[in-house]
């Protein structure tokens, strides 16, 4: 089992200066290695269907990869001795970041999804450094002894669980200070294998913008809209920032005030996502949701509300927490979940303004999102609503055999 704990650091003034200098040197070398890969890529690639007859033949050069770029660190320390101040494993981790970001650009991740073209890091854009081989022995009371940095004070707001070992330690800089992220692992904790989802052991949720989500039982979670509530303050701070002279100390302070406000909104949203996921998973049931095209929706007229809700982040958190609890999250095709009736399966067309579901066949009346949540649940477990057409039915309505037990008393 692998988890991550984050703690607030209280470095001294000299340690802050040292960390800032390390990050700047790492940023410069990151850009250099990335440019080296781009240069080789541009000089050696050729169109598959239009190879020119006359072309420039560059000098043969070994293709940059993770291993030869890591070997180049030896020459780097000889030509630029100040790089010897940085811990060797921190430098190697920087090379690994270059390798991973370029591989995701060319080949994609494990699921085949490719990232965009890697960008060079501007000043202040390289914000973290990692010690790949951290250890519990580094912790000494209220301090953690980081190699070549020394003992740094840490606010241990929660203890490290028994049985877990420290794998990596990442020091990151945020708008309100420095933080330490410890990656912990316990190999003795078995990974629970989830059981097969059924109607009784599955919860269907429909995510929206009027309510953050609605479950198949009809319970809704209000959407907090943290960003919209902070917009007024952000506008005032950004107007103040625009009046400051570029490069001045006052502008740097104004940038920090804006960054802190955005960081607060981010943390409020993250806290809401974790609490909502915990509340859903406390029922010990699998979670079914729509496989939404969130990027497409974020480019529509609902962009600000969609990004403020943070559906993608929430579903990612929900998936990880469910796996740790021995449960699963099931993404279903959103086609028909809103239009189809959850009582009899009849298609009931609706526009985006129609917030109420009223079936003319079985007479089912309920909220549009509640109806969609039930359909999502049925699709996830492989039991869509089906009905057979018959002349004689219990309610005297052609095409319906009986009402579902869920709405028998409705």
Present the secondary structure layout.
Blueprint: E1 2-10, H1 13-44, H2 66-79, H3 88-106, E2 128-131, E3 139-140, E4 143-146, E5 150-155, E6 165-174, E7 177-185, E8 202-207, E9 213-215, E10 220-221, H4 226-242, H5 249-281, E11 286-290, H6 294-297, H7 303-309, H8 311-324, E12 329-332, E13 356-358, E14 365-367, H9 368-380
Parallel strand pairs: 8-11, 11-12
Antiparallel strand pairs: 1-5, 1-7, 2-6, 3-4, 4-5, 6-7, 8-9, 9-10, 13-14
Plain-language structure description:
The chain has 2 domains: 173 residues, no CATH class; 187 residues, 2-Layer Sandwich (Nucleotidyltransferase, domain 5), CATH 3.30.420. The chain is built from 9 helices and 14 strands. The chain has a 7-stranded antiparallel beta sheet with strand order 2-6-7-1-5-4-3. The protein starts with a strand and ends in a 30-residue tail after the last helix. The C terminus is likely disordered.
Number of helices: 9
Order of strands, widest sheet: 2-6-7-1-5-4-3
Count of beta strands: 14
Number of domains: 2
Given the helix and strand composition, which structural class is it? Answer: alpha+beta
Q: Which sheet architecture does the biggest sheet show? A: 7 strands, antiparallel
- Average pLDDT reading: 88
Supply Rg: 27 Å
Distance between the termini: 46 Å
> According to CATH, what is the class of the largest domain?
Alpha Beta
Q: What is the architecture of the largest domain at the second tier of CATH?
A: 2-Layer Sandwich
Helix percent reads 25-40%
pLDDT under 50 segments (min length 5)?
386-410
Work out the oligomeric state of the chains in this entry.
single chain
Shape: globular
């Amino acid at each position: 089992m692998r988890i991550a704990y984050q703690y607030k650091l209280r470095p001294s003034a000299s340690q802050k200066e040292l960390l800032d200098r390390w990050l700047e040197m790492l940023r410069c070398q990151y850009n250099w290695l990335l440019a080296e890969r781009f240069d080789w890529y541009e000089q050696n690639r050729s169109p598959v269907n239009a190879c020119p007859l006359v072309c420039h033949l560059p000098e043969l050069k070994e293709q940059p990869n993770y291993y030869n770029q890591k070997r180049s660190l030896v020459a780097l320390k000889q030509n630029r001795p100040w790089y010897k101040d940085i811990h060797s494993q921190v430098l190697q981790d920087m090379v690994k970041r270059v390798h991973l970001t370029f591989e995701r650009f060319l080949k994609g991740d494990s699921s085949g999804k490719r990232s965009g073209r890697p960008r060079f890091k501007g000043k202040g854009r390289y914000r973290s450094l990692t010690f790949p081989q951290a250890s519990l022995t580094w912790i000494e009371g209220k301090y953690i002894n980081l190699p070549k940095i020394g003992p740094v004070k840490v606010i241990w707001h929660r203890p490290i669980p028994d049985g877990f070992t420290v794998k990596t330690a990442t020091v990151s800089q945020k708008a309100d200070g420095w933080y330490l992220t410890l990656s912990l692992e316990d190999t003795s904790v078995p990974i629970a294998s989830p059981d097969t989802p059924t109607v009784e052991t599955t919860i269907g949720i429909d995510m929206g913008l009027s309510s953050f989500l609605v479950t198949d039982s009809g319970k809704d979670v209000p959407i907090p809209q943290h960003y919209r509530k902070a917009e007024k303050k952000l506008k005032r701070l950004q107007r103040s920032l625009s009046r400051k002279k570029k490069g001045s100390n006052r502008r740097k302070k104004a940038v920090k005030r804006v960054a802190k406000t955005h960081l607060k909104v981010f943390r409020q949203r993250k806290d809401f996502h974790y609490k909502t996921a915990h509340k859903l998973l406390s029922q010990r049931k699998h979670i079914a949701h729509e496989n939404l095209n969130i990027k497409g929706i974020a480019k529509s007229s609902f962009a600000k509300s969609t990004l403020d809700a943070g559906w993608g982040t929430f579903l990612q958190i929900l998936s990880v927490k469910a796996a740790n609890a021995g449960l699963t999250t099931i993404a279903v095709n959103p086609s028909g979940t809103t239009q189809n009736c959850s009582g009899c399966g009849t298609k009931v067309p609706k526009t985006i303004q129609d917030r109420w579901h009223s079936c003319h066949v079985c007479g089912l009346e309920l909220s549009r999102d509640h109806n969609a949540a039930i359909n999502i649940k049925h699709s996830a477990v492989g039991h869509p609503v089906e009905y057979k057409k018959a002349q004689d039915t219990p309610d005297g309505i052609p095409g319906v055999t009986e009402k579902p037990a869920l709405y028998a008393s409705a």
